[in-house]
Write a structure and sequence with these properties.
It is a single chain. The chain is of the alpha/beta class. It folds into three domains: 5-56, no CATH class; 61-192, Rossmann fold, CATH 3.40.50.10860; 210-368, 3-Layer(aba) Sandwich (Rossmann fold). Helix content is 49%, strand content 15%. The protein has helices at residues 5-19, 24-41, 45-49, 52-56, 105-121, 142-156, 175-189, 209-227, 244-255, 278-289, 296-302, 330-338, 354-363, 370-373, 376-390, 396-418, 427-446; strands at 61-70, 76-87, 93-99, 127-133, 165-168, 236-239, 259-265, 268-271, 305-307, 318-320, 343-345, 366-368. The chain has a seven-stranded mixed sheet with strand order 9-8-7-6-10-11-12, sandwiched between helices. A five-stranded mixed sheet has the order 1-2-4-3-5, sandwiched between helices. Bound molecules: NADPH dihydro-nicotinamide-adenine-dinucleotide phosphate.
């Protein structure tokens, strides 16, 4: 390592890039975290001597496998499946499965790395993992999705378990896919255990798991605003995405007295100046999860505007990106701020590229990075695991309170580590440090393994 923090970062990233060539999303996620941790560990040589950061940035295990399935025309299709088990220092591996044509090893390694810190922040005993396949569920029949899920689980089942690795949903993996995969796991192993979360309520699911990520993201925005003596009430929010996270973030904004004016999908965004209220949201949930249509149909149904591209040029107080990674660049972050945005809470994972994050931090707006803002989903997944182990089911009221308390606890930890002492809270630094310390100390306890 060099002498200054900048030299150390350059040398560290050189090693990461050399060992993981071309994996740009993984490099991006590692650099964002390491840049904030290196200054913190300068006077804590034990973390450096024991190579804690180097070990965190090398997944414990990467599994790739072929998934062959037959489509409705009896054509054989071949996809690639993955599970990246990043770190299990503080608990069994835990993290979602993504089915999307864009899935690569780089994207899953970034997500598994981020998940390690996020899960630590929840305070629950969960390590970090992520998986998925380059399978595109769009336009596939239910039977095709079922056959794919069954074939995917036929290999994945040997690498997971209720005390080993507990996958959940992510982009393209919702209740339908979890049901097909759990059915196959159960058949292959002859065990009914909590090996997946996000299950249906009839077979071991937890209340409020579906809502948890979106709700938690908005609680985070509310917690940051509260520090400034402000609230969601009366605020205008723009949201990207129209899937699980986006729709429940919108629902919570409405419940707290704000107004949501945009939602999007990969074809464009709708702008509804009157606000996307509960009835309109019910339409979106049906459109996206039952009819599996395009967001443009919302504009046709309610007389709203439809535009190609992303919603970041729309005036707002709060922005909640909930679609995918790298959806806000430096210029888009500047546009947000120019148009009045003072609070960004990331529902999606790593939706803002580094140039955009630098814009938020320079402007000193409220910025909750994804590992802080969207941890509510995995937190309730952790509670689903507890309920499955104990063979009990908690009430909705209990779980709503636990989710809210968890998000408050995460905000407090990030505030503690991110307070710059000049009235500004750098929540990015706070989230990275608070997530790091617990995992790092557990790794120290194990010695060199
Ligand atoms: P869904 O599949 O339910 O919805 C994804 C939404 O994002 C859809 O509207 C989709 O549009 C849009 N989208 C996906 N890829 C792109 C793209 N490349 N460009 C533009 N729009 C895109 O996924 P989730 O809501 O579950 O996940 C959204 C984000 O939240 C992801 O980053 C995920 O990792 C993160 N997250 C999810 C959690 C969960 O509990 N589900 C937990 C924590 C984080 P279209 O319909 O056109 O594909």
């Amino acid at each position: 390592m060099g002498t200054t923090v900048e030299e150390q970062l350059e040398s560290f990233m050189h090693g990461v890039e050399r060992r993981n060539p071309g994996e740009i999303e993984f490099h991006q996620a590692v650099e964002e975290v390491v840049a904030t941790i290196l200054p913190y560990i300068q006077d804590k040589p034990i973390y450096q001597e024991m190579q804690i950061l180097e070990r965190m940035a090398e997944p414990d295990r990467v599994i790739t496998f072929r998934v062959c399935w037959e489509d409705d025309k009896q054509q054989i299709r071949t996809q690639r499946g993955y599970r990246v088990q990043n770190n299990n220092a503080i608990g069994p591996y835990k993290g979602g499965l993504r089915f999307h044509h864009s899935v690569t090893l780089s994207i899953l390694k970034f997500l598994a790395f981020e998940q390690t810190f996020k899960n630590s922040l929840t305070g629950l005993p969960m390590g970090g993992a992520k998986g998925g396949a380059d399978f595109n569920p769009k336009g596939k029949s239910d039977h095709e999705v079922m056959r794919f899920c069954q074939q995917f689980m036929t290999e994945l089942f040997r690498h997971i378990g209720e005390d080993t690795d507990v996958p959940a949903g992510d982009i393209g993996v919702g209740a339908r896919e979890i049901g097909y995969m759990f059915g196959t796991y159960k058949r292959l192993t002859n065990k009914f255990v909590g090996v997946l979360t996000g299950k249906g309520m009839e077979y071991g699911g937890s209340k409020i798991r579906t809502e948890a990520t979106g709700y938690g993201t908005v609680y985070t925005a509310a917690n940051m605003l509260a520090v400034k003596g402000d609230s969601i009430e009366g605020k205008t929010a723009i949201i990207s995405g129209s899937g699980n996270v986006a729709t429940y973030a919108a629902e919570k904004i409405n419940q707290l007295g704000g107004k949501v004016v945009t939602l999007s999908d990969s074809s464009g965004f709708v702008y509804d100046k009157d606000g996307i209220d509960a009835d309109k949201l019910a339409y979106v949930v049906d459109l996206k999860t039952v009819r599996r249509g395009r967001i443009k149909e919302y504009a046709d149904e309610f007389g709203a505007e439809f535009h190609e591209g992303k919603p970041w040029g729309v005036n707002c107080d709060i922005a909640i990106p909930c679609a995918t990674q790298n959806e806000i660049d430096g210029d888009e972050a500047k546009t947000l701020i120019k148009n009045g945005c003072t609070c960004v809470a990331e529902g999606a994972n790593m939706p803002t590229i580094k140039a955009g994050i630098d814009v938020y931090l320079d402007a000193k707006i409220l910025f909750a990075p994804s590992k802080m803002a969207n941890a509510g989903g995995v937190a309730v997944s952790g509670l689903e695991m507890s309920q499955n182990s104990a063979r009990i089911s908690w009430s909705e009221d209990e779980l709503q309170k636990l989710l809210k308390d968890t998000m408050t606890g995460i905000h407090e930890s990030c505030l503690e580590y991110g307070d710059e002492g000049d009235g500004y809270v750098n929540y990015l630094k706070g989230a990275n440090l608070a997530g790091f310390v617990k995992v790092a100390d557990a790794m120290l306890a194990y010695g060199v393994v």
